Amino acid sequence: MDSSDADLRTRVKTMIVQCARLKIQPAELKDDWPLFDKEKGLGLDSIDVLELVVNVEKTFGVQIPDRETGQKVLQSVNTIVEHLKASGKTS
Amino acid sequence: MKDGALWEHSRHWLNLRPVYAFGEWVLDSMPLFIGYGLTWGVTEVAYHASPNQRAGIEANVRHVLRTLEPSMSEEERERKIRGLVYRIFHNRGVWFADLSLLAGRRQVSGLFSFDRSGNWKALERQLATGKGAIVASAHLGNWHGGGFAMALSGVPVRVVMYRNHAGDVMDRKVAQRAKVKQTYIDSDPMAMMEIMKALNSGEVLAMLVDKPWDSRSVSVPFFGRPAPFPMGPVRLARLAGVPIFPAFCVWKRPREYVAILCDPIEVRGADGEEAERSALAALAKVIETQVAANLPVWFNFTPAWSPP
């Protein structure tokens, strides 16, 4: 993992923690934690989806245009980072 | 999403799919006087055999009357409450019968009338921008009828809802008939993507906002006391940048409805959470005004000020 990748992950984690008003530090968030799983992950809900979608666009300039894309992208920190990298807008 | 208590409280021996299906068949197939007569009979039984629901309405009506008519004697108030609760049960029966007819095969035109009142122009202006809006209603009058009337007038309506114990089958039929789209938000958080897309493409989202089905609620003044209201609609409005139109569909005579569209509430401000709280308080105030004016058709069987 190079420094730009690590930086991107930190920004994504910070965004998730802020959007969902989580009581943890961004660094505590594991890259592969399922975002919406109540038992094994963060247990985010539909309101958090809204916040994430709006903030991904605001912070990174990348749209998550529909439900299908959302299902693929908003699984974990890893999948969000992959989507941002694929879009080429990681700065 | 449902955290349980409210969902459990809304369980009822009449709130079962076969009961709804049978009622719908009776109302759809038999002369109206038989359908409405049977509905009256079933409602009478329901009134006597539903102590929890009666207690819920009584508690709500008692608080409203104490606020609206503080000088009324305790004895007079209790007498009035008993009468109102009885009327509310029977009006709920009429609600069921009307909903069955809307879901059924009968011709709606000529059977129902929906007059429009309030600020419909503001909704037209909002839709002309290309973006949608949120229409927020309460368990007051016939909320399905409001969506139905709006859709029949050419507004692209999408109902956002939780699945319920029985009525969702009928909801679906009413929606299909009026070409109203539906999105359920209890099973898949990603449904919110569909909702956001709908708003961005100019659809009107209709939702009931007077019951906090999940833990995402904020307490705001309602008839002088804090009551929990769901914060989802106001957050959605803020993030999507659309206004909320409080709306109600009440009846004055059987099958003669007035669809009231109130002035829009904007959810804006530098402090997002404060803007949401303020909008929710404004929304609760509008609901309060409408409930006060239409108390006999306020169908909130769960205590509004303390969760069951």
Core attributes:
heterodimer; A: Non-ribosomal Peptide Synthetase Peptidyl Carrier Protein, Chain A; 55% helix; 0% strand; globular; B: 308 residues; alpha/beta; seven-stranded mixed sheet; two-stranded antiparallel sheet; 11 helices
Q: What's the short version?
A:
Helix content of chain A is 55%, strand content 0%.
Layout: helices, strands, pairs:
The complex is a heterodimer of chains A (91) and B (308).
Chain A: H1 3-19, H2 46-60, H3 67-73, H4 77-87
Helix pairs in contact in A: 1-2, 1-4
Chain B: H1 5-9, H2 17-29, H3 32-48, H4 51-68, H5 74-103, E1 113-118, H6 120-128, E2 133-137, H7 143-152, E3 157-161, H8 168-178, E4 181-184, H9 191-200, E5 204-208, E6 217-222, E7 225-230, H10 232-240, E8 244-253, E9 256-261, H11 272-293
Parallel strand pairs in B: 1-9, 2-5, 2-8, 3-4, 3-5
Antiparallel strand pairs in B: 6-7, 8-9
Helix pairs in contact in B: 2-3, 2-5, 3-5, 4-5, 5-8, 7-8
Uncertain parts of chain A: none
Written as H for each helix and E for each strand, in order along the chain, the element string of chain B is HHHHHEHEHEHEHEEEHEEH
Largest interface: A-B, 19 and 17 residues
Portion of residues in helices of chain A?
40-55%
Q: What's the total helix number of chain A?
A: 4
Rg from alpha-carbon coordinates of chain A = 12 Å
Adjacency order of strands in the biggest sheet of chain B: 1-9-8-2-5-3-4
Task: Note the overall shape of chain A.
Answer: globular
- Count the domains of chain B: 1
Structural class of chain B: alpha/beta
Average pLDDT score of chain B: 89
